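Study this pair:
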Amino acid sequence: DMFDFGNANDGQRQAIATSDGPVLITAGPGTGKTYTLVQRTIYLIEECDIRPESIFIATFTEKAAKELVTRITNELASRNITANINEMYIGTFHALCLRILKEHLEYTRLRRNYRLMDSFDQQYMVFQSIHRFRCIPEIEIVLPNGGAWKQAETICNFVNNLSEELVSPEELMSDHDPSIASLGRMLQEYRAILTEENLMDFSSIQIEAYRLLCDHEDILNELRSAITHIMVDEYQDTNGVQETIINLISRVDNRFYVGDVKQAIYSFRMADSSLFMEKYNTY
């Protein structure tokens, strides 16, 4: 019984049927990337007997994640394959990291009933505690003059960007450049408030997941043995922390990346398309 590749062209067929990676596909918009991801998922389940809960697919937008779930569900149904898609790790990097955290909350700094903040909540929280930031030595080097709301916005921008790049407050604080050292103190103060108030912001979801996996080898190993195949959509947009998490949980041979380096839309969000070029040159 041959696998039905549908309308896939030769390149797509090859990608779909390569069950062991690493595989890197560079494809522009409109070249059927989503189709290829969907079909490869079906191929793994139908032809390779991979359990859905062993497949991890990271996307960059909620919309892309929803579309994948819908299309995989429909495709499984049309082939009469029973599989519980709810068990699959499929979603944005943030959603997947949040799931990992929720499953192991007692090992994190978070307590039950923690609150996840959106960008407005985050800025408002900093605004309410602005006095704590204003009394940091030499903070005036990095903080603009003006009102508390404007300063809160600047602080949020700094901490979000620093978080995405896995920089620790201690590293920054030990820097001989006073402006970098004061950023470190800012980050430390900010994180202290999060812990006190049992809060989580959007950019620290990934950091908390990363820390959890680094600090608890048993949790990491559990995840590693649960997940056999990793697929990353829009790979050119991955940043340092996402790349590090993927490296932690993956068994080297099973990664499947789809991306288009000409299309790095998230570069303003610290995405590092040099990671993509690096992969491109090594695979």
User: Anything to note?
Assistant: Residues 42 and 279 are 25 Å apart (CA to CA).
